[in-house]
Amino acid sequence: MYLSGLESLLTGTAQAMLDAKATKYPQTVNRAVSFNAVKNLALDLLLAGGLETNLLLEQLTALFLTNPCLERNHRNPPRKKPSARALLNFHKRQKKHCF
């Protein structure tokens, strides 16, 4: 819980920079990259002095900006609904029952 809160605080600067960009699709910070970076550097951030902390924060912000995710809201194709016969075949023959 603490690391996810710290990660959301640290990505705020990078997210503001990404919001200021004029792109076709809005961009967000890649949460997988940011959480992994914060997880690996959490002790360094908490135990470092003032100048070292600023250097680590600049490095993290640069890392967060390298691989943004695009928000493409129109990319949800409708799901194909299987027929009743296909569902019956799945439940009778293909589904593995565990006891």
Low-confidence segments: none
Instruction: Summarize the helix and strand pattern as letters.
Output: HEHHEH
Percent strand: under 5%
- The average pLDDT value, as a whole number, equals 85
In DSSP terms, counting alpha (H) and pi (I) runs of 4 or more, how many helices? 4
Shape descriptor reads: elongated
Q: Estimate percent helicity.
A: 55-70%
**Beta strands, count:** 2
Characterize the biggest β-sheet.
2 strands, antiparallel
Strand order of the largest sheet: 1-2
Radius of gyration: 22 Å
Terminal CA distance: 36 Å
Category from helices, strands and their pairing: mainly alpha
What does this structure look like?
With about 100 residues, the protein is mainly alpha-helical. About 65% of the residues lie in helices and about 5% in strands. The protein is built from four helices and two strands; from the N terminus they run H-E-H-H-E-H. It has helices at about 1-20, 30-45, 50-65, 85-95; strands at about 25-30, 70. It has a two-stranded antiparallel sheet. The longest helix is centred in the N-terminal third of the chain and has 19 residues, at about 1-20. The protein is elongated and about 65 Å long. The two termini are about 35 Å apart. The model has no long low-confidence stretch (mean pLDDT about 85).
Quick overview:
The protein is mainly alpha-helical and 99 residues long. It has helices at residues 2-20, 31-47, 50-66, 84-94; strands at residues 27-28, 69-70.
